[in-house]
Design a protein that fits this description.
heterodimer; A: Rossmann fold; 9-stranded mixed beta sheet; two-stranded antiparallel ribbon; 24% strand; globular; B: alpha+beta; MutS, DNA mismatch repair protein, domain I; Dna Ligase, domain 1; 20 strands
């Protein structure tokens, strides 16, 4: 994995490339990326989760909204880490809070997202959530905005996601749209994930292991999709590859598909 | 009273026909008010309705409605706000306005007095107004003075306006000097006394019994008592009587209690032609915002609570308040806040025929030192504050929250949601603000802190750890018991308890769920051993097989919270299903037989 300096060099090269190669469908100029620290995932994402973009999450099974929210909050923890006083905003409709439970502070602390880094907003309707999300993304005050919509979140159609994408691009924050059910319609979001809970590897005493996610990257404007099983180390605040995982994740250690390797050597 | 009836169009008689308002007094219907036509017939307040009917069988009668009268008075007080921010109520039918320093804006005291009576008259009120140095004198002259004395009153720094109090009650204005007495010269003091001398003693705001008692000893006018030795008067008629004399002549200071909090900084704009478009209103607010910012800059302060008062041409006043999380001194941001507020209240703020006065005031301010702006990049903290303000303006400040840990081990009370834009000063002003809104139920201004979201911010119980809406399951009457145990609500106090240490995390998995249900959800669970962990559970009609379990973690509720002396305990288990879904379950109470065991799902892990 490349160090921070190398990543900076990489980003610089990308910028140069983007100015040369203008007819690409999207612009990479000046883009900030949030590396998840997992080579396989980062490779699929082109270096990391794009900041200044919208990402959609939905649980794979109806009752697993806790897992999907957990992944979103883990991303928020990753994004706001570093002690620069960055803040995450979690927007929730009243109904979503009733259906899936309200965020619980001590649990967030346990997950690695200290309470003081989070602001919560409750709104009455899904359209309000979208409005608030757009406003928050436009302002540079928050580093990541998570908007949770109940059910499939039909209010967030192509137009709405397009608006959110533009707002995120203007403000530079990560936008995350969290649905309770996947909505199979076109989206303007940069990536679309389905998050399922994965059985954890129990510790030596048979207790619960690290929180594990089964991520399906169903849509990715930057590259290929894939299925990754990862787990979250809440002490270190980092994603780890699942120890006993299915074959897909194992390719992570195979250097051939990691675009960062040669650059790392060159830098 | 009759004015109100005629204006509302529910009068039983046309305006020029005799109309009286009757109210029950000690079992008999007596006249409480009447219009000019009835007054001309010689009817007087306090007369029995039967007597009045005997004299004039065809008079129209309406029932008294003191509550409606009071509301009308408050509405007129609102309207009078256009003259001065210091408007006090003098129920049942008077208003006190402090016009010191305001009169010159309207072309002098006399012009102001004429203006206020003419405008009230145009709205259908009989009103009398008087300007005087003291509240007492203005009150006396407005109610008991002759027409000439009304206009000839004192060149005082104060004024009182009072509509026709003797006959048709309606709105009354009254103004006097403010809480700080201006240095008075002999001339104005003399003129105050001159104006008072010929008036009857009732003009001194004393009880009818005192008036009667004074009349029995031959004292009927203020001139009869004003120079008498005070000690015998006080001994015989009470301290209150002497105090009233002192207040009337200005020997004792008498402050006006303003009905609304007086803004620290105010700017306003008047229009010859009323404005009705939202864009115009917002443009005006931004323009006024620039002036407000200049005023605050001079004093090194920034606004924490801003109120825009929109005076509609027909007398209704819309008040829209917006709170901020940090002292604000930026006109564009003030405008942005009101964009959200106007969008949030929507149709409630109907411009009708337009607004002719727009006023912007800072109700609460804080010290705000200029900050050197950096060249390095955007100021995230300032952007965040502004975002919170705007979201708060749109949805209510209570809906934008931060989580604050609380000092308790009971899971659902371990955190409280506190408004993100919180500060003691704004809270203090809001308390006043809300009190004022309760005073007038007609008022439709939502207080910025009055969002209706659950998990709202302010703790209401100073002596306990309980939030105002305990989220305990309602079964077994726990809720009621908890309420009783904490002694119900009392004075609001804010508790921000940061003495919190994160839970010990020696497990590979987090020990607390990320989402907690407000009501723990009842589930069916099967345990292999009667008091052991579950092996299978059914939640929302789906059955899950348990793969891994950690627990039990026994959490007991505070023993004093259960009325019967039972300790309520919960055995919590962290459970992972075969699919990998992790939830937080508990078994209620100690195990005493399979029939009584009840399982609940309280939260979900990531």
């Amino acid at each position: 994995m490349a160090s921070a300096a190398h990543r900076g060099a990489l980003s610089h090269l990308r910028q140069a490339l983007a100015t040369i190669d203008k007819d690409k469908g999207f612009s990479l100029a000046g883009e900030e990326l949030l590396p998840l620290g997992l080579p396989a995932v980062d490779a699929a994402l082109g270096g990391g989760l794009a900041c200044g973009a919208l990402h959609e999450l939905a649980p794979a099974a109806p009752a697993q909204f806790g897992t999907a929210a957990g992944f979103a909050l883990a991303l928020a923890a990753l994004r706001t880490a570093g002690g620069k006083g960055r803040t995450a905003l979690f927007i929730q409709t009243d109904y979503a809070a009733l259906e899936a439970g309200a965020l619980y502070g001590p649990g967030l602390d346990c997950l690695g997202l200290p309470m003081e880094r989070l602001i919560m907003l409750r709104v009455p309707r899904p359209v309000d959530a979208l409005w608030a999300c757009e406003e928050a993304l436009k302002s540079r005050g928050v580093a990541i905005v998570i908007a949770e919509l109940p059910e499939a979140g039909e209010a967030a159609d192509f137009t709405a996601t397009r608006r959110l994408t533009l707002a995120a691009r203007a403000g530079g924050g990560i936008g995350i749209l969290l649905r309770h059910r996947p909505l199979p319609i076109a989206t303007a979001a940069t990536t679309r994930w389905q998050v399922a809970a994965a059985p954890s590897t129990p510790d030596r005493f048979g207790g619960l292991g690290r929180t594990a996610f089964d991520l399906s990257l169903n849509r990715n404007r930057r590259g290929h999709g894939g299925r990754f099983i990862v787990c979250w180390d809440h002490h270190a605040c980092a994603f780890l590859p699942q120890a006993l995982s299915v074959g897909v994740a194992a390719t992570a250690d195979d250097g051939s598909i990691d675009p960062q390797r040669p650059l790392a050597r060159a830098g | 009273m009759t004015d109100r009836l005629i204006r509302s169009g529910r009068s039983p008689a046309p305006a020029d026909k005799p109309l009286v308002v009757a109210e029950p007094v000690k079992g008999a219907l007596r006249l409480a008010g009447m219009n000019d036509a009835a007054d001309g017939l010689g009817l007087k307040p306090g007369m029995a309705l039967a007597d009045a009917r005997a004299m004039y069988p065809d008079i129209a009668v309406a029932d008294a409605d003191p509550e409606a009268d009071r509301r009308m008075l408050v509405a007129i007080a609102d309207w009078c706000d256009r003259y001065t921010p210091l408007v006090g109520l003098d129920p049942p039918d008077g208003l006190l306005l402090d016009i010191s320093g305001c009169a010159h804006l309207f072309g002098g005291e006399e012009t102001l007095r004429r203006d206020i009576t003419a405008r009230l008259h145009a709205q259908g009120f009989q009103a009398r107004a008087a300007v005087a140095d003291t509240v007492g004198c203005a009150w006396a002259v407005a109610r008991y003075g002759t027409c000439e004395s009304l206009s000839a009153v004192i060149p005082g720094r104060a004024e009182s306006a009072s509509p026709e109090s003797l006959t048709t009650a309606a709105g009354y204005g009254f103004r006097t000097r403010g809480p700080t007495p201006a240095p008075r010269n002999d001339t104005s003091s003399d003129r105050t006394i001159d104006a008072l001398l010929p008036l009857p003693l009732a003009a001194l705001r004393i009880t009818p019994e005192t008036v009667t008692a004074l009349a029995q000893v031959g004292l009927k006018h203020i001139a009869d008592v004003i120079d008498r030795p005070r000690a015998p008067l006080a001994a015989r008629f009470g301290e209150a009587f002497v105090r009233r004399i002192d207040q009337a002549v200005g020997r004792t200071d008498e402050p006006i209690m303003p009905r609304l909090p007086v803004p620290d900084f105010v700017t306003e704009r008047r229009f010859a032609e009323p404005i009705a478009l939202e864009a115009d209103v917002l443009g005006t607010i931004e323009h006024l915002g620039h002036e407000l910012v200049r005023l605050m800059e001079r004093r090194g302060e920034g606004a924490r609570l801003i109120e825009a008062a929109l005076f509609r041409t027909d007398g209704k006043v819309h008040r829209i308040a917006a709170g901020t999380g940090a002292p604000l001194r930026d006109a564009a941001r003030i405008r942005a806040l009101f964009v959200e507020r106007l969008a949030a209240i929507g149709d409630e703020c109907d411009p009708g025929f337009g607004y002719d006065v727009v006023r912007l005031g800072a109700l609460a301010t804080d010290r705000c030192d200029p900050v050197q702006t950096g060249l390095a990049g955007p100021d995230h903290a300032a952007e965040l504050t502004h975002l919170v303000d705007r979201l708060g303006a749109r949805f209510g400040l209570r809906r934008v929250t931060r989580i604050v840990p609380q000092d308790t081990h009971i899971p659902e009370y371990a955190v409280a949601a506190v408004a993100a834009a919180v500060s003691s000063k704004v809270y203090e002003v809001h308390t006043r603000y809300n009190r004022r809104n309760y005073e007038d139920p007609r008022r439709s201004v939502p207080s910025p802190l009055a969002g209706e979201g659950q998990g709202g911010g302010w703790r209401q119980t100073p002596n306990s750890q309980l939030p105002p809406t305990p989220a305990l399951p309602r079964r077994k009457g726990v809720h009621a018991r908890l309420q009783r145990a904490t002694g119900g609500g009392s004075k609001p106090s804010l508790r921000l308890d940061f003495a919190y240490s994160p839970l010990d995390q020696d497990s590979l998995a987090p020990t607390r769920p990320i989402r907690l249900f407000e009501q723990p959800e009842r589930i069916e669970a099967i345990a292999s051993v009667p008091d052991g962990p579950p092996v299978q559970f059914t939640w929302r009609r789906v059955r899950y097989a348990v793969a891994h379990v950690e627990g039990p973690e026994r959490i007991a509720l505070d023993w004093w919270r259960d009325g019967q002396g039972h300790t309520l305990t919960r055995d919590y288990f962290r459970v992972e299903s075969h699919e990998g879904m992790r939830v937080w379950l508990y078994r209620e109470g100690a195990f005493n037989g399979p029939a009584s065991t009840r399982w609940f799902l309280h939260g979900v892990f990531a």
